[in-house]
Design brief:
Blueprint (H helix, E strand, L loop, with lengths): L3 E5 L2 H12 L15 E3 L6 E5 L3 H8 L4 E5 H7 L5 E6 L5 E8 L9 E5 L2 H9 L5 E5 L6 H5 L4 E6 L3 H5 L2 E10 L1 E6 H6 L1 H16 L8
Parallel strand pairs: 1-3, 1-4, 7-8, 7-9
Antiparallel strand pairs: 2-3, 4-11, 5-11, 6-9, 6-10
The structure holds 1-O-pyrophosphono-5-O-phosphono-alpha-D-ribofuranose (PRP).
Length: about 220
C-alpha cells in the first residue's frame, strides 16, 4: 500500500505535478481532461486526490490522505491546533497575505470592518493591533467588498497586485509570506515512515533542482 496524496486543485495542483513527476509519481489519467477526482499513480503504488484547498488539511488530519499539498494560507486558516506535521516548503505558489483597502482612504481608527476568506488569520492579525474590528466572511472575490461598501478593507492573498489595482485598492501591511507546503498525517509518519521520508527527500531534491513549474 502506497501513499494517498491530497493535492489542492487549481494552480497548486498544476505547479506541483512536475515536482511529483520528479518523484516518479504521476497520475495515470490526464487530470486536465478527466473529471475524476482520485487518480491512481502510473506505477499503481499511490493515489492522488484532487481536493478543494480547505479540505486538504481535513483529509490529512482524518487520515484519509497520508500527505497533503496546499498553501500556507490554508494551513494557517485551518487553525493553530494542527494535528498534522508541516514538513516541507515546496517553494511554489509564492505570494503574500496582506491587508488592502481603497486607494487613499485610510482605515478608520476604530470599528474597522474587514472582509476576508481568511477570517482566522485576519482575527489573529488585528488582535495584535488592539483595534475594535468586525469580520465579514466571504468565499472569494474579496476585492468587491470595499467597492460595495460592505467592508473598509480586506485581508487577501496578493501575488502580482493586479487584482487590487484593477479594483481601485492598494496593498497595505504584509501579514505573512505564503507558499505551498507538504503536510503529513501523524499516524502515517509512523506507519508509513519509509514511504513518507522517501517522498520528502525526493521532493526536497526536486525543489533544490528548481524543477520548473508549468506555465500558467
Ligand atoms: C487570488 C486572491 C486575489 C488574487 C491575487 O484569487 O484572492 O483575488 O488571486 O492575485 P494578483 O495579486 O496576482 O492579482 P483567486 O484567483 O485565487 O480567486 P478568489 O478570489 O476566488 O479566491
Amino acid at each position: 500500500m502506497g501513499l494517498v496524496i491530497a493535492v489542492n486543485k487549481g494552480r497548486i495542483f498544476e505547479e506541483c505535478m512536475p515536482l511529483l513527476a520528479a518523484c516518479e509519481i504521476q497520475p495515470s489519467d490526464d487530470p486536465k481532461s478527466s473529471r475524476k477526482l482520485i487518480f491512481e499513480s502510473v506505477t499503481g503504488n499511490h493515489k492522488i486526490i484532487v481536493a478543494r484547498s480547505a479540505d486538504v488539511p481535513t483529509y490529512v488530519e482524518n487520515g484519509v490522505a497520508d500527505v497533503g499539498i496546499t498553501g500556507k494560507d490554508t494551513i494557517l486558516e485551518y487553525g493553530a491546533d494542527m494535528t498534522f506535521y508541516e514538513r516541507l516548503d515546496l517553494k511554489i505558489g509564492a505570494c503574500r497575505m496582506m491587508t488592502a483597502g481603497p486607494v487613499g482612504v485610510p482605515e478608520p481608527a476604530q470599528g474597522v470592518r474587514v472582509a476576508s476568506k481568511f477570517v482566522n488569520i485576519a482575527r489573529q492579525y488585528y488582535q495584535k493591533q488592539s483595534k475594535q474590528v468586525s469580520f465579514i466572511k466571504l468565499s472569494g472575490a474579496l476585492e468587491i467588498a470595499p467597492l460595495l461598501g460592505l467592508a473598509d478593507c480586506i485581508v487577501d492573498i496578493v501575488d502580482t497586485g493586479n487584482t487590487l489595482k484593477a479594483n481601485g485598492l492598494e496593498a497595505r501591511e504584509t501579514i505573512c509570506e505564503i507558499s505551498t507546503r507538504l503536510i503529513v498525517n501523524r499516524a502515517s509518519m509512523k506507519t508509513k515512515f519509509d514511504l513518507v521520508q522517501d517522498l520528502i527527500e525526493q521532493l526536497e531534491n526536486a525543489v533544490a533542482q528548481h524543477v520548473p513549474a508549468v506555465s500558467q
